[in-house]
Automatic annotation (TrEMBL):
It comes from the Bacteria. Keywords: 4Fe-4S, Iron, Iron-sulfur, Metal-binding. PROSITE patterns: COMPLEX1_51K_1, COMPLEX1_51K_2. Gene3D superfamilies: 3.10.20.600, 6.10.250.1450, NADH-ubiquinone oxidoreductase 51kDa subunit, NADH-ubiquinone oxidoreductase 51kDa subunit, iron-sulphur binding domain. The keyword Iron-sulfur applies. Residues 422-467 form the NADH-ubiquinone oxidoreductase 51kDa subunit iron-sulphur binding domain. CDD domains: TRX_Fd_FDH_beta. GO terms for molecular function: 4 iron, 4 sulfur cluster binding; FMN binding; metal ion binding; NADH dehydrogenase (ubiquinone) activity. This is Formate dehydrogenase beta subunit. The lineage of its organism: Bacteria, Bacillati, Actinomycetota, Actinomycetes, Propionibacteriales. PANTHER family: NADH-QUINONE OXIDOREDUCTASE SUBUNIT F. The keyword Lyase does not apply. InterPro entries: NADH-UbQ_OxRdtase_51kDa_CS (IPR001949), Nuo51_FMN-bd (IPR011538), Nuo51_FMN-bd_sf (IPR037225), Nuop51_4Fe4S-bd (IPR019575), Nuop51_4Fe4S-bd_sf (IPR037207), Thioredoxin-like_sf (IPR036249). Belongs to the complex I 51 kDa subunit family.
Length: 506
């Protein structure tokens, strides 16, 4: 029987996936399977067709297309490529060129089927972890080279080693699923498409450091992810993957979901901890680091969704297998996210070392406007703007840092030649002014003064003097801010001035 996979994630549903599924279900001889999204963003749901001979097509299908596709024989497998059928031929190679480890099951399995999960390799990592000592699990993660996928790139295993070594009667694992950065959506897609992987990763983390309780701090803007994760946790408890005696090992760990309230700053780990404790989300000074004094003052692992969701594959296949991907100190794969003015937006999981240009042009297909690409902002709203002349930069934490940029969470937002970089720099300050927690002066006041300074530069008011003032302000915010909100806002500003200075004249 022909199987048609129709995504269930929020983005796909917002463009009619439920109706597509309904219409296709009515066709004899076709089974509809709802999975998470494969990760390609389109204005129609990306549907995949599989016949007994294998996968025959992957492409966008709007509800009103279904009847036409049936008439064309596509759903009976007579048309080999659904993309070609719709005049779009790029999608299948786009998927095949990826190296999906963290996202291996996303778009393949029913997100809430425990049977599907184990049939596709789920729980193998947890079983392996439970056969090792906690210290051995930690060292496996250290050896894999995994670095924090939330943006800062701190080695995950080293963080866990600190928590393991801390003496306390109570320890926690907290997953940062606040995903506040514009142009990032991988955390959401992972949770909506393969939630058990995150649960498994958190359970392994808890075993490794000696924690008994975990929290997922999930943004309220993701109601589908909240519902999916809560249901997955219930199922995991029934399966014995969580609870008083995980897989009969005697180890106890349970997990709770806490929903944020729309503050970007609550993605900063110490604000997130304050919020989890029921307080207003403001930044705590570090040290002490959360690894030593985190949630309710106890040693706490704080990791991003993707850092935790990558741990099961590392445990299942070994540190060496994971570290075989990547370059330099940027090992493994990263889940890059293409957005903005790009022809084919979506998730691209590949080994580190791929260039920015390959991602934007080969995977992304250039701009959606058809005009030439002018710049990409990498790493969210606090990341640098890179001109096309720098698109041969490899996606590598150190190479980006050397270029005055950051890989961050792997979000890439593309702009065409019509972008005005002075207004983008102004926006960086505006964003900081709106999202600042207000605790320290360089950020709270500096962001407002930054907007005014850029306005004077663009108006041609004492331009040279104000450019110097802008540079001073950026230096002060970088060095004097309590957290990376104020500390990194100068990065997009300075990169815009450095690479696109012509936009700052009247
Ligand atoms: N994902 C998003 O939506 C988003 C949004 C805004 C910013 N960011 C990212 O956040 C980053 C900044 O985050 P940050 O301020 O938490 O970075 P950081 O460098 O202060 O910390 C990174 C992580 O390493 C831990 N750590 C640091 N030193 C340690 C040590 N010696 N031992 C154990 N653990 C240690 C920290 O507790 C934290 O968990 C930026 O680079 C940006 O890319 C991400
Ligand atoms: C303003 C600000 C917002 C942040 N938002 C997020 C976020 O939404 N998700 C995230 O994982 N990390 C975010 N971070 C980074 C966290 O503070 C922290 O470094 C991360 O959760 C650690 O996990 P990792 O080591 O697995 O990346 C943010 C940092 C700052 C300064
Ligand atoms: S840099 Fe901004 S967000 Fe961070 S503590 Fe200071 S005021 Fe708050």
């Amino acid at each position: 029987m022909t199987k048609v996979y129709v995504p269930t994630d929020a983005a796909a549903r917002s463009v009619g996936a439920d109706e597509v599924a309904e219409r296709i279900t009515a066709i004899a001889g076709v089974e509809v399977v709802r999975t998470g999204s494969r990760g390609m963003l389109w204005l129609e749901p990306m549907v995949e067709v599989e016949t007994p001979e294998g996968r025959v097509g992957y492409g966008p299908v709007a509800p009103e297309d279904v009847d036409g596709l049936v008439a064309a024989g596509m759903l009976r497998g007579e048309v080999r490529d659904i993309g070609a059928c719709l005049g779009l031929v790029e999608e299948l190679p786009w998927m095949k060129r990826q190296q999906r480890l963290t996202f291996a099951r996303v778009g393949v399995v029913d997100p809430l089927s425990a049977g599907d999960y184990t049939a596709h390799g789920g729980i193998a990592g947890l079983r392996r972890a439970l056969s090792l000592t906690p210290a051995e699990v930690v060292e496996t993660v250290v050896d894999s080279g995994l670095r924090g996928r939330g943006g800062a790139g701190f080695p995950t295993g080293i963080k866990w080693r600190t928590v393991l070594g801390a003496q306390s009667d109570l320890k926690f694992v907290c997953c940062n699923a606040d995903e506040g950065d514009s142009g990032t959506f991988a955390d959401r897609m992972l949770i909506e498409g393969d939630p058990f992987t995150l649960i498994e990763g958190m359970t392994i983390a808890a075993y490794a450091v000696g924690a008994t309780e975990g929290y997922v701090y999930l943004r309220s803007e993701y109601p589908d992810a909240v519902a999916t994760l809560k249901e997955a946790i219930e199922i995991a408890r029934v399966e014995g993957w969580l609870g008083a005696d995980v897989l009969g090992s005697g180890f106890t760990f349970d997990l709770h979901v806490r929903v944020g309230a729309g503050a970007y700053i609550c993605g900063e780990e110490t604000s997130m901890l304050e919020s989890l404790e029921g307080k207003r989300g403001t930044v705590r000074a570090k040290p002490p680091i959360p690894a030593l004094e985190g949630l309710f003052g106890r040693p706490t692992v704080v990791n991003n969704v993707l850092s935790l969701a990558t741990v099961p594959t590392i445990l299942a296949h070994g540190a060496e297998a994971y570290a075989a991907y990547g370059v330099g100190r940027s090992l493994g794969t990263s889940v890059f996210q293409l957005g903005g003015n790009v022809a084919r937006g979506g998730i691209v999981e590949t080994a580190f070392g791929i260039t920015l240009g390959e991602l934007v042009n080969d995977f992304g297909g250039g701009t959606s406007s058809g005009r030439p690409v002018r710049a990409a902002q990498v790493g969210g709203p606090l990341g640098a703007y890179l001109p096309v002349e720098q698109f041969d930069l490899p996606m590598d934490y150190e190479a980006f840092a050397a270029a005055g940029a950051m890989v961050g969470h792997g979000g890439i937002v593309v702009f065409d030649e019509t972008v005005d970089m002075a207004s983008m720099a102004r926006f960086a300050f505006e964003f900081c002014a709106a999202e600042s927690c207000g605790k320290c002066t360089p950020c709270r006041v500096g962001a407002v003064r930054g907007v005014e300074t850029i306005d004077r530069i663009v108006a041609g008011d004492d331009r040279q003097k104000n450019l110097v003032l802008l540079d001073d302000l950026c230096e002060l915010m970088t060095d004097g801010s309590l957290c990376a909100m104020g500390g990194l806002t100068p990065m997009p500003v300075r990169s815009a001035v450095r690479h696109f200075g012509e936009d700052f004249t009247t």
